[in-house]
Write a structure and sequence with these properties.
The complex is a heterodimer of chains A (231) and B (543). Helices cover 29% and strands 25% of the residues of chain A. In chain A, helix 6 links the parallel strand 4 (115-118) and strand 5 (142-146). Chain A has 231 residues and is α/β, with parallel strands linked by helices. In chain A, helix 1 (3-11) runs parallel beside helix 5 (102-112), helix 3 crosses helix 4 and helix 5 runs parallel beside helix 6. Chain B has 543 residues and is an alpha+beta fold. Chain B has a six-stranded mixed beta sheet with strand order 5-6-1-7-9-8. In chain B, strand 11 and strand 12 form a beta hairpin. The radius of gyration of chain B is 37 Å and the shape is elongated. The chains are: A alpha/beta (231), B alpha+beta (543).
């Protein structure tokens, strides 16, 4: 039995017809410059490669705004980290091991939930992925894919990263400065890139502010920290 | 303990023997610890009394039948008697198997008097039982106990006790059509006079009764004449209670047994159905019946067990929960989801897909609460929650109820321990308090990936030798290179540790000493690795 073949037509009765279109979902300010119009458009697939934190940061603002999120097939998701990013755990649903019903589960969840975090390539044939993308577009949900998703609307890739706070035998991981590149289709076709703290001190994603006193976040690079400690 | 409630008592004498199927004409006894605790009429006629040793009893009656003591049997056999009595009057209290009481005033008015009620109760309960009606359960029980067949006059007539001063008789007795006296009704307000003739032994306080006898207080009438203050000061509070009883006052009110409403509904499918679609119509009718049964009792059900059975006896039972209340359409949905997953074999049931057609569906309410009504929001969070709950219930139907979880922060030290996953539908209660100090807790930020199973890694110093951690938490060399799985070597550009976490140090069998390290490698990645007695393990990745 091909899961999607049965799941998609059957699921059609589930959701009551939505009156009107879903609103675009907000994102944290640090990521706004990477996305067309600075929002998560409903009905799109965003693929994230190279960083789980980046995916969690994408979930944070919608979750804070009251959206329901799900993670399907991501058994190792750092839930504490999710909470630190601002994801409301009360509205985060986990289906850690969907097995071969992966496509059915995702198709069911996009009916009702706003953001679904998935790790594709496990039990999902390419045809399943295409059908799912069509369903996501129709139901106007947002799918965040950890890893490549063929035909994703927006592709976010973490290219460079550097941790600060950890010395040789002292300190601890405090913050990470990353560079993220964005590409995609349609409005997202123009490549963009941004440098941000992911996470900043405290666990959230923050934009890197290069100038101005009192600019957030306050992160002391390793070399300076060593200097202040020895002083 | 104020005004005695008019009470009807139904007494089935020698109930343990009746429950065991021994009639009054057969000599039989119930034995506990080698002593007689109950004896039938025939056995008593042979001289067997309660408290007699088993050997002596057998000596007095050669063909004595011995019955083991079984309170469960007695209680189960008494249930039909109570049910029959509930047809006459509601709210029956079972005092013990063989004896039950009910507040009789309303029922008595309904059938037209205490005598009519007593006759109706006798007719409902059947032969062997005796009925007493009086003010308060104590007097009523004695009234029932004072029913003796030999007492009788002619059938259907009332025996009026002679009382020179009363215009109304103290009590009336009556019988059934067979001519046996079966009930005693004590006139209202005359319980004290009725009780006056009984021995103080009926108070079931042997020590007190013994003392009273020696003091020359032989009957309840004698006791009732004593001033209550003197009784309390001389004999104590328990005697004061006995004094109240002797005066025809009440010890305690009758509390009603609430009959358990029959809320379970089931549907038998004949011929057995191979597909869910074939039973949907019946399932809808079943759900309507179930919901109507709940509504009749003013109840609502928040959790329901749907039990399905095939013609081969395979069973699948699942609990379904709903945040507000399960309506009939919602129940039908859940029946379909559960059976869909089961019959198609996608659900993770221990036996896999069933081999036979579906023969039975049963709906059992699991959490029932009073229906307080529910106002749905026109839109907003409630509507969203409803939609989400439906979708998740469907996923649970496909994968099983444990497959869908939500997270709740809890107490712990490692990143994986500080969040607990709870099955969707169960209440979000943290298993351990999160707001206590957990020494050794790792600093923020938390790793974005927490491996469910730690993976072995190799961590070596600059000299290529594996890094060791001593008992005193000293590393043998600064970590220089890390190899994860079968991957190549990564240069360690930053490290911190060891951060020891010793758990359950007080128990040598379960104690667990871990030394955690944070490592940053040259490719920009960061790791949480642990030194254990069996080597180095990566627990989480800061990606």
């Amino acid at each position: 039995m091909a899961p999607v073949d049965t799941a998609v037509p059957e699921a059609a009765h589930l959701a009551a017809p939505r009156g009107g279109r879903r609103e675009p979902l907000p994102v944290v300010p640090a990521l706004a410059s990477l996305l067309p119009a600075g929002v998560l458009r409903p009905g799109t697939v965003v693929s994230v490669t190279g960083s789980t934190s980046l995916a969690l940061a994408l979930l944070a603002a919608p979750s804070q705004a009251g959206s329901w999120c799900a993670a399907v097939g991501v058994p190792g998701l750092g839930l504490l980290s999710a909470a630190e990013h601002g994801v409301d755990l009360e509205r985060l649903v986990l289906v850690a091991h969907p097995g071969r019903a992966w496509a059915t589960v995702v198709a069911t969840l996009v009916e009702a939930l706003d953001v679904v975090l998935v790790r594709p390539g496990r039990g999902g044939a390419e045809s399943d992925v295409r059908r799912l993308a069509a369903r996501v577009r129709e139901r106007e949900a947002v799918v965040v894919s950890l890893g490549e998703w063929a035909g994703a609307d927006v592709r976010l890739t973490q290219t460079r990263c550097r941790w600060v706070g950890l010395g040789l035998g002292h300190g601890h991981l405090r913050a990470r400065r990353v560079e993220v590149q964005s590409s995609g289709r349609g409005a997202a076709a123009r490549p963009r890139s941004a440098v941000l703290w992911l996470p900043a001190v405290g666990g959230r994603a923050e934009p890197v502010v290069t100038a101005g006193p009192g600019a957030a976040p306050v992160v002391v690079p390793v070399a300076e920290m060593d200097a202040t400690q020895s002083a | 303990m104020t005004h005695p409630v008019r009470t009807l008592v139904v007494d089935c004498p020698d109930w343990p023997l009746t429950a065991a199927g021994i009639g009054p004409d057969t000599p039989g006894v119930v034995i506990v610890a080698q002593r007689v605790v109950a004896a039938s009429v025939a056995a008593r006629a042979a001289g067997i009394t309660t408290g007699l040793r088993r050997r002596l009893a057998q000596g007095r009656c050669a063909d004595l039948v011995l019955v083991p003591d079984d309170p469960d049997r007695d209680a189960a056999a008494f249930e039909p008697v109570v049910a029959a009595l509930e047809d006459v009057a509601p709210a029956v209290e079972i005092v013990r198997p063989g004896l039950c009481a009910l507040a009789s005033r309303a029922a008595s008015r309904y059938v037209g008097g205490d005598e009519a009620l007593a006759a109706a109760a006798i007719a409902a309960v059947g032969r062997g039982a005796r009925v007493g009606i009086a003010d308060g359960p104590f007097a009523a029980e004695l009234a029932a106990a004072s029913v003796v067949p030999s007492y009788a006059g002619s059938p259907g007539t009332n025996f009026v006790a002679p009382d020179r001063f009363a215009r109304v008789p103290i009590y009336k007795v009556g019988g059934d059509a067979g001519g046996e006296v079966r009930w005693v009704v004590v006139a209202e307000g005359r319980s004290r006079q009725f009780l006056a003739g009984f021995s103080v032994d009926v108070l079931r306080r042997p020590a007190l009764a013994d003392l009273l006898h020696r003091l020359g207080v032989h009957t309840l009438g004698d006791l009732a004449r004593l001033p209550s203050a003197s009784v309390v000061s001389r004999f104590g509070p328990d005697a004061a209670l006995a004094h109240r009883l002797a005066r025809g006052l009440e010890e305690r009110p009758v509390t009603a047994r609430v009959p358990p409403p029959e809320l379970t509904a089931q549907l038998e499918i004949d011929p057995p159905a191979a597909q869910v679609e074939h039973v949907l119509f019946g399932a809808k009718e079943l759900a309507d019946r179930f919901a109507a049964g709940l509504a009749d009792h003013g109840l609502t059900c928040q959790r329901i067990s749907i039990q399905a059975e095939t013609e081969h006896g395979e069973q699948l039972a699942r609990l379904w929960r709903h945040d507000s209340a399960l309506t009939a359409p919602a129940i039908v949905d859940r029946i379909r989801w559960q059976l869909d997953g089961w019959l198609s074999g996608t659900a993770r049931s221990p036996d896999g897909a069933p081999t036979g057609g579906l023969a039975l569906i049963r709906l059992v309410p699991d959490q029932v609460a009073a229906d307080t009504g529910r106002q749905l929001g026109l839109w907003g969070p409630e509507e969203a929650l409803d939609r989400v709950a439906r979708a998740l219930a469907r996923v649970q139907g496909v994968l099983g109820p444990d497959a869908v979880t939500t997270a709740v922060p809890t107490g712990g030290r490692d990143p994986g321990e500080r969040v607990a996953e709870i099955r969707w539908g169960d209440s979000r209660v943290a298993p351990k308090p999160a707001d206590r100090p957990w020494p050794g807790r790792l600093p923020t930020p938390a790793p974005a990936t927490v491996l469910a199973d730690a993976r072995p890694v190799r961590l070596v110093g600059a000299d290529g030798a594996s890094v060791e951690v001593s008992d005193r938490c000293e590393v043998s060399a600064a970590p220089a290179r890390l190899s994860v799985g079968s991957g190549g070597w990564l240069d360690v550009v930053g490290w911190a540790g060891p951060w020891p976490a010793t758990e359950r140090w007080w128990d040598p069998h379960t104690t667990d000493v871990r030394s955690r390290f944070q490592l940053a490698t040259g490719d920009g990645a960061a790791w949480l690795v642990t030194a254990r007695s069996d080597g180095w393990w990566v627990e989480a990745v800061y990606d």
